[in-house]
């Protein structure tokens, strides 16, 4: 059971999130397919609210909240389809220190982590090659890199912090379905500061936060869809009267209920016992569930909208496009199922 | 057995974790080992020893107040009790008296009825069964037609009930009967207690798909019942029965069936040497994740009870989720068995491998206690506010 | 190009296998290679060369009689034509004139209309689009409200059409319009031909989920159309349009989309080095089996056409089966791509790997041409005779 | 396209089948869980109609029909849930010769093949050990063995024919869910006659015939269910008016349509080109489809019946129980999917 004080900090953070995210998707739609694809002024507000510092202990300048409140925040971000790079920034916060951390937290110098060389994994890449304070490495699928002031080349035991405009940095940016972008980045003898840290716990937290983002996204999509079902008339009935559409909506609601339970339980366990194998497995379970559910729910929301759902003009498609991107980030269903199986072999539990 | 060690004045005073440990200890020390994880619902003959142990220990009725001989557990503690019983694979006894009738009597019964019936439920003297469904009143329960007509000091009952669980083991049946045919279907229904040895009652077992006789039809042909056997007010039976849905609703959504099916799947994997087969491991992991997800949503709803909140219609999500998972596990298990899945007797004579029976049992899960389809209808209106 | 080699007096006289070989040869020799297996519906600018090749060869209208400039194919030969075009991955041209309007004119048009319009369809002078759906008449098409009121010698049209495919490329639109508001919804609908350069018409492209402008809205604001542009009798448009569902219905159920998605899945498997991965191979084989099953049921329905039987409502099973498969292949493909599935541009710039676009395209497949839900409603009544 | 003459022989054989199978399931129900579980008198009728000889060329005393008419017959058998061992007997016919074949065909001496040592395969067991005219071998899942006069111990290149009551034959019979039975049989120095033959083509035909049996079974189950939907009233409506139940029934109908097309196409191909890899693959495809569809359709038919569907008293359960047995016979969905993949590697076809 979630303790009362955690529940109330979750409520508080939800309220504060709603202040940022606004009531409709007009802002989100405007930012799509542009560069950097998010609003730096909004990012400053976000930093002022302390979100990137949420998970940091107070002695590192943070807010000291648990993973559960972070999940609540990510959920609200997902409901609003927030394009600002909250989850990457929180990941960076966990690895940075000193002045770089301070500048990152106050929004002056946004650091985006570049942690993978491969698709479909939650394992960080090997350590980047660092010689004479210069780093050489390649990273792919770096989100919103075009909006970063600095990049953190994350490795399994040590990471390298480089300025985005440092020499030897080659960025190839690809647009993503949701209107954002990712980059493949080559670092070639790029001057850097070295940070020793194990990124795995923070990566697992990012996976859980992404699951929560997907949860909020599903909620937003279903809310919009249920409203449509109550309003659209065909064959002389509001279409929400048709049993088959009712059941599709109920199935979507169930996916959401289960995703929420899975995510909250995983976060609660992590907050209680830290990154134990069981808590790691719970995060994989939650991410696998949320990714699969989000794809199913947003697909079905399109279908429930009928023709209008297939237009880019209608907002319902924004949820599907965002799900296409976030479902795979920090591992999708099959990767997390495999990770779960490794963490909890068949014979281990009843 | 040292029952007294488990008799406390106030279980609710224990910290949750201590109470949980107590329940575990109780089960470990008292539950008959051969009755754990039963493949089918137990008949009274098999269940009696366990029922009497619960009775002697005062652990039979976790949901009844202490002054009626129950454990008097608050909702949170009731949950722990249920969770640990489920986890342990404790056998379900013929428990309609404790689970359904008891709370109804406690809420709506006369002092005389309480004094007479409650102790006899606890002692095992009266085993009760439930007479709600009828051949034309299944999903549409309010359509029931078994009628009771007052004739002097007696109700004369005519009609038929169906899907009565373990009727053959029971001494008494509590029925919803029609006492008024005018007005809306939901009105004019009363709650009547009938001894099964009354002349005019015929019980006919129904063999189900598991080839088991868990259910019966019960026929009433001019069955005469004392006027005082009505519980609560005449024509208020529907409302009373609906109001009582609480403690037992969460039972319907517990992970027990899926957990049992998954345990069989694991044993089958072992039996067939598939524990290192990547395809099996992938499917198994998927199911285990779903089961743990179900446990998570079950706990989430349980937490509401713990906080003293009333369960809304969304509790039905538990049953929908669990029964769908239960069916999918057994469907995969059956296919995994290939030709062995067609065998009638459990493989190697072991209930641990009896997947075909579990598969058949799973068919019922989406029908009884409200079909999946009817539950989704209700949820669409009650939770999504669809027209 | 040696078109004359493909001009026969009577294609129907050829044995089926010879005709099939002829179609293959025709495609191999004439189809522009860069237009094979297009990722999206082609706009006129891209499709024009291929349209003009078909036109010059007399191969544009397989379903029209020879005396109207068609190939005059019997149903069996039409099927072979379609099958081979599908198998080859031939590009679909803006073909509403040939496919829908032509047969309607041939059946219901005046001699004058036939003489004027049919040659211009064949020559590419008139490109047609279809104006059926409206914002409040989608699944419930009979609810359409765009109205045409007679004013002297002209119809005055007001209203709005939506989901008009390739409207921006077209010169003319054929519309269902309301000409009588009394009586049943299906009555009082007429079939009207409207030049798109008439004053009062506004075309607004709709960007779809593929971020493509295949569809448009068409607005009519006091658009004046000559009285003679009605096809058939006034108020008979609904019946005429329904009667014409034939040749093109089987198109909707062809295996093209799933085949194209499966080809992409194979390329992706190759790209990611998964051709020896047992999990991939298992999924791929499952999809390939389903595709071949679909080809089997498609052929079975096609055989009915070949035997000269009329296609009943069960032809909708083809669309249901194909679109469901199409969606599942793309859903798996998308998940297989992991993070790559979120990219907007095709992987490696190759259309052969453009699974995310195909996934989005597949969303439309269960909506357009009758949603899956509406089709199942119809089938329940028409095929299973349910109430 | 199926040639006209084949279509008419399919119609003829369907008519003749309906003469045997009767109109209801009373007979089927009576024979369940008894021994031998089928009616020897009916078996004689079946032999008189020439069914076990159907696939044999006329010069071997057969009828000389193709696999398509055989599939039509098996379909009618499935619709009626025929318990007589038609498909095993046809398999035996393909392998026997001489007097044994004659006695088998005229029904005097029913031979049941025992062809597998393992579950979940369509590959025959290795050759039985034969020394001095005596066979030693083990076979499992031998259908209706308790009703056989003789057993054919099938091996990959040679088979051994033994009398059911011959010395050294140990039979352990297990009941099956459908009311029939299978046996695990040990042959220990059992006197036998040796027959050289490759059973694989006949096994593939048995798989296709079983697919057709499942097709008929689905048809029977859905017909019964649709009739129930039109008759059962709840909430003041015949339940067939509920959209969700309509769609379940339509989905079942679609499974049947596709299964039929798959089966007929595979049989047609086999009749045209013989046991080519492509035709073998088509049979695997048809059996995988029919097995999976039959399980789904019969499960859904139970659900559509509601409570009454979960009783053994109602006939709808008979279809599910039969599907549980036949779906796995001669290979189920996963085995045939694997076989298909071997026969048609990924890169082979567009």
From TrEMBL, chains A, D:
Keyword Flavoprotein tagged: yes
Region forming the signal peptide: none
Gene3D superfamilies in the cross-refs: Acyl-CoA dehydrogenase/oxidase, N-terminal domain, Butyryl-CoA Dehydrogenase, subunit A, domain 2, Butyryl-CoA Dehydrogenase, subunit A, domain 3
GO molecular function terms listed in the Swiss-Prot or TrEMBL record: acyl-CoA dehydrogenase activity; flavin adenine dinucleotide binding
Protein name from the UniProt record: Alkylation response protein AidB-like acyl-CoA dehydrogenase
Keywords per UniProt: FAD, Flavoprotein, Oxidoreductase
Obligatory cofactor(s): FAD
Family to which this protein belongs: Belongs to the acyl-CoA dehydrogenase family.
Xref: InterPro entries: Acyl-CoA_Oxase/DH_mid-dom_sf (IPR046373), AcylCo_DH-like_C (IPR036250), AcylCo_DH/oxidase_C (IPR009075), AcylCoA_DH/ox_N (IPR013786), AcylCoA_DH/ox_N_sf (IPR037069), AcylCoA_DH/oxidase_NM_dom_sf (IPR009100)
UniProtKB/TrEMBL annotation, chains B, C:
Entry annotated with the keyword Oxidoreductase: yes
Superkingdom per UniProt: Bacteria
GO cellular component, one term: plasma membrane
Acyl-CoA dehydrogenase/oxidase C-terminal domain span: 235-384
Residues in Acyl-CoA oxidase/dehydrogenase middle domain copies: 129-223
Domain Acyl-CoA dehydrogenase/oxidase N-terminal residues, every copy: 17-125
Assigned keywords, A-Z: FAD, Flavoprotein, Oxidoreductase
UniProt cross-references to PANTHER family, sorted A to Z: ACYL-COA DEHYDROGENASE, ACYL-COA DEHYDROGENASE FADE29
Coiled coil ranges: none
UniProt family annotation: Belongs to the acyl-CoA dehydrogenase family.
Stated name of the protein: Acyl-CoA dehydrogenase
GO MF terms held by the record: flavin adenine dinucleotide binding; oxidoreductase activity, acting on the CH-CH group of donors
Cofactor: FAD
InterPro entries for the chain: Acyl-CoA_Oxase/DH_mid-dom, Acyl-CoA_Oxase/DH_mid-dom_sf, AcylCo_DH-like_C, AcylCo_DH/oxidase_C, AcylCoA_DH/ox_N, AcylCoA_DH/ox_N_sf, AcylCoA_DH/oxidase_NM_dom_sf, Mycobact_Acyl-CoA_DH
A Pfam family recorded for this sequence: Acyl-CoA_dh_1
């Amino acid at each position: 059971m979630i303790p009362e004080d955690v529940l109330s900090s979750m409520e508080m953070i939800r309220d504060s999130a709603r202040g940022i995210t606004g009531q409709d998707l007009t802002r989100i739609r405007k930012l799509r397919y542009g560069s950097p694809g998010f609003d730096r002024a909004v990012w400053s507000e976000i930093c002022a609210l302390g979100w990137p510092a949420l998970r940091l202990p107070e002695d590192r300048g943070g807010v000291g909240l648990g993973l559960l409140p972070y999940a609540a925040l990510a959920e609200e971000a997902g409901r609003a389809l927030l394009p600002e790079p909250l989850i990457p920034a929180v990941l960076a916060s966990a690895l940075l220190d000193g002045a770089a951390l301070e500048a990152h937290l106050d929004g002056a110098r946004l650091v985006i982590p570049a942690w993978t060389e491969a698709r479909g994994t939650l394992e960080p890449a090997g350590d980047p090659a660092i010689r004479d304070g210069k780093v050489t490495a390649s990273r792919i699928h770096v989100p919103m890199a075009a909006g970063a002031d600095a990049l953190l080349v994350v490795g399994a035991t040590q990471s390298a912090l480089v300025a985005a405009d440092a020499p030897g940095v080659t960025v190839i940016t690809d647009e993503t379905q949701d209107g954002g972008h990712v980059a493949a980045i080559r670092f070639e003898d790029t001057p850097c500061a070295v940070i020793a840290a194990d990124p795995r716990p923070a990566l697992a937290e990012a996976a859980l936060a992404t699951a929560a983002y997907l949860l909020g996204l599903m909620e937003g999509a279903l809310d919009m869809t249920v409203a449509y079902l109550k309003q659209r008339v065909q064959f002389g009935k509001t279409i929400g009267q048709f049993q088959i559409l009712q059941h599709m909506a109920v199935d979507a609601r169930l996916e959401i209920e289960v995703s929420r339970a899975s995510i909250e339980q995983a976060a609660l366990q992590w907050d209680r016992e830290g990154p134990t194998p069981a808590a790691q497995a719970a995060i994989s379970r939650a991410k696998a569930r949320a990714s699969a559910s989000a794809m199913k729910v947003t697909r079905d929301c399109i279908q429930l909208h009928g023709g209008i759902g297939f237009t880019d003009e209608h907002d319902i498609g924004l949820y599907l496009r965002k799900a296409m991107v976030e479902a795979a980030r920090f591992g999708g269903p099959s990767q997390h199922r495999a990770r779960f199986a490794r963490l909890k072999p068949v014979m281990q539990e009843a | 057995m040292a029952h007294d060690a488990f008799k406390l004045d106030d279980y609710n005073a224990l910290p949750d974790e201590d109470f949980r440990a107590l329940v575990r200890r109780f089960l470990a020390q008292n539950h008959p080992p051969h009755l754990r994880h039963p493949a089918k619902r137990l008949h009274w003959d098999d269940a009696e020893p366990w029922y009497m142990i619960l009775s002697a220990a005062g652990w039979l009725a976790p949901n009844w107040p202490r002054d009626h001989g129950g454990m008097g557990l608050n909702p949170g503690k009731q949950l722990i009790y249920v969770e640990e019983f489920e986890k342990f694979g404790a056998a379900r006894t013929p428990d309609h008296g404790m689970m359904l009738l008891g709370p109804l009597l406690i809420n709506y019964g006369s002092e005389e009825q309480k004094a007479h019936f409650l102790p006899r439920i606890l002692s095992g003297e009266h085993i009760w069964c439930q007479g709600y469904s009828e051949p034309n009143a299944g999903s549409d329960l309010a359509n029931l037609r078994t009628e009771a007509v007052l004739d002097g000091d007696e109700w004369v009952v005519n009609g038929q009930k169906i899907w009565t669980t373990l009727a053959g083991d029971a001494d008494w049946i509590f029925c919803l009967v029609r006492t008024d045919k005018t007005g809306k279907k939901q009105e004019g229904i009363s709650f009547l207690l009938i001894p099964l040895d009354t002349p005019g009652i015929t019980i006919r077992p129904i063999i189900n798909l598991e080839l088991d006789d868990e259910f019966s039809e019960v026929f009433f042909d001019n069955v005469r019942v004392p006027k005082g056997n009505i519980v609560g007010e005449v024509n208020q039976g529907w409302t009373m029965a609906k109001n009582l849905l609480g403690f037992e609703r969460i039972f319907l959504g517990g992970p027990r069936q899926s957990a049992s099916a998954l345990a069989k799947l694991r044993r089958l994997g072992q039996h067939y040497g598939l524990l290192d087969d990547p395809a099996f491991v992938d499917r198994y992991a998927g199911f285990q994740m779903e089961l743990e997800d179900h446990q998570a949503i079950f706990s989430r709803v349980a937490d509401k009870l713990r906080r003293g909140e009333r369960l809304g219609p969304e509790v039905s999500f538990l049953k929908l989720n669990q029964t769908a998972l239960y069916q999918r596990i057994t469907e995969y298990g059956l296919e995994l068995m290939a030709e062995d899945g067609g065998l009638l007797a459990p493989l190697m004579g072991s209930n641990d491998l009896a997947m075909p029976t579990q598969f058949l049992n799973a068919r019922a899960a989406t029908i009884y206690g409200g079909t999946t389809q009817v539950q989704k209808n209700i949820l669409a209106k009650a939770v999504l506010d669809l027209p």
